[in-house]
Amino acid sequence: MDDKTRTELEAAAFRRLLEHLRTRTDVQNIDLMNLAGFCRNCLSNWMKDAADAQGVPMSKDESRQFVYGMPYDEWRAKYQKEASADQKVAFEKAKPHH
């Protein structure tokens, strides 16, 4: 597979992941962190890191809106729930360091 095709396939898979996460608003970021070691915020941070590495101007707010499909504060107001005590304990045990 050539590099252009690989990049196109990776981009398509990433877009599909974002769309999936945008439709699964019932899945909280803390659940993603506890199970997979990353969440929507991690994806937005990685997007910003990639933009920075390429010299593309992108703010943290812009990268979050890209991932969430809406302003982050709007997503939080609509969908984010308070983490339970069990979720917080699990997060502290499995907290990634990336």
From TrEMBL:
Transmembrane segments: none annotated. It holds the Pfam family DUF1244. SUPFAM superfamilies: SMc04008-like (SSF158757). Residues 27-93 form the SMc04008-like domain. InterPro entries: SMc04008-like_domain (IPR023163), SMc04008-like_sf (IPR036810). This is DUF1244 domain-containing protein. It comes from Pseudolabrys taiwanensis. The lineage of its organism: Bacteria, Pseudomonadati, Pseudomonadota, Alphaproteobacteria, Hyphomicrobiales.
